Amino acid sequence: MNITLHGAAGDVTGSAYLVETGDSCVLVDFGMFQGSQVLERKNTIPDGLNPTRLDAVALTHAHLDHSGRLPLLVKHGYRGPIYATDATMDMADLILRDSARIQESDARRANRKLHEAGRDGSKRLVPLYDLDDVEQTLALMEDAPYQEPFSIAPGVSIRLVDSGHMLGSASIEMTVEEDGQRKVVVFSGDLGPRGAAWLRDAETFQYADLVFLESTYGDRDHRPLKETLDEGGAIVVDAVKRQGKILVPAFAIGRTQQLLYHLAAMFHEGVVEKFPVFVDSPMAIEATTIYAQHPELYDDEAIELAREGRLKMDLSTVKAARTVEQSKAINDVEGICMVIASSGMCNGGRILHHLRRNLSRPETSVIIVGYQSQGSLGRRLVDGAKEVYIFGDRIPVRASIHTLGGFSAHAGQSDLLRWFDVVAQSRPRVALTYGEDRGRNALTGIIRKRYRLDVQTPMQGDVIQL
Q1: Are 261 and 375 in the same domain?
Q2: What is the pLDDT of residues 188-199, one digit of tens each?
Q3: 237: helix, coil or strand?
Q4: Do 153 and 236 fall within a single domain?
Q5: What is the greatest pairwise CA distance in the chain?
């Protein structure tokens, strides 16, 4: 059996594992590379991967860096099944359609600029895929239930367990039988932290011959969630006193729902009186609806809150701004309110309009709840910029800028090791993926010292034989 890494090897994007036996050819994930232009140029069908030869695809979860190249696969001839949990299929429907729309919009804008510049002879930008490709991709998806092993190709079966990273996310146990031998390969997928809002904690496996383990935060732990919530509560209390808008740039899927969950607790416990909260992101609104449709995936606490009707009651002041007109109307709201809008790094989306209008006001509070990449507007705000440019306008920054760590959807070092500890007893080989050198090297040292196991840190294109 050969396993070729076609992404998320040496970096944290583009997850893709090609598993080849004498009888079968299976792909685990086919994610999009995101970030720099160098990474985004890798969004292709790599050499050595023939879509028409694949028997099946197994998807760990719907985030774009794990699912984003699937329509490209279909565009190039793949017609087999794509196995995913029911919630992952719902989320993939939302995420992949959005990805296609963005690509088509970007292509139109770029080509219009070429035309305006009189460069019609230049090479026109073509989207990786369009909505038709997405429709075909979604039609190939088949429900893969948790905990039930089933065959996906000759000699290959899989079993999924909850990975606690996002709604519907999974770790995959792949059992391969060939030439009288039986081997078990585990793909951790993205593992979530213990105690995350809504979600059950990640489950693990008892046995493996080879484990592909994510290592995004292999070198450190996150700030304790209680400390984050205490600090967040203090920021909100102060904002209420100053009667200004609270602007929260947040990723539409996962982070927005987590914030609403904790805000409900704050209202219920009387930390502050209820005030208007606007979810100003069509994608976040749709994702929140999908969360509501899958209570079977909630952790025990969320199940109890939903059963009592507390979440609905405590979030009674939350309003959805679906249309542009509804988004603009938020500008007319006087006094304290919270606006949760994408994008999480302030690189686009409706949050830019709210920042443009409110950053110059000293009563405004901006709460940054996620990682801000170098060069992003969010990063400039975190770094203390006195002024920024939004839509070409110079905006003085007089608002209070706050950062809250502890909301990561990825397991920190201790949770990664806690998950790995169970399967480690079977003495597997280990390949650390989905992590940069900082995270992988630290985790490699600990696993080698603590468990005395063989640990590899493969790069893109590397082949692991089993």
Answers
A1: yes
A2: 999 999 999 999
A3: helix
A4: no
A5: 72
Phi, psi at residue 367, to the nearest 5°? -115, 115
CATH number for the domain that contains residue 41: 3.60.15.10
Dist CA 331 CA 326 (whole Å): 10
Q: Do 300 and 246 sit in the same domain of this protein? A: yes
Strands ordered across the beta sheet of 210-214: 150-153, 156-162, 170-178, 181-187, 210-214, 429-433, 455-456
> Which of 379, 403, 427 is the endpoint of a domain?
403
What percent of the chain stands above pLDDT 90?
84
List, for residues 59-94, the tens digit of each pLDDT value. 999 999 999 999 999 999 999 999 999 999 999 999
Closest residue by Cα to residue 296 from 414, 409, 393, 162: 162
pLDDT tens digits, one per residue of 230-263: 999 999 999 999 999 999 999 889 999 999 999 9
- 93's torsion region: left (phi>0), alpha (psi -120 to 50) or beta? alpha
Count the neighbouring beta carbons within 10 Å of the beta carbon of residue 157.
Answer: 14
Domain that residue 340 falls in? 225-403
The residue from 360, 382, 403 where one domain ends is: 403
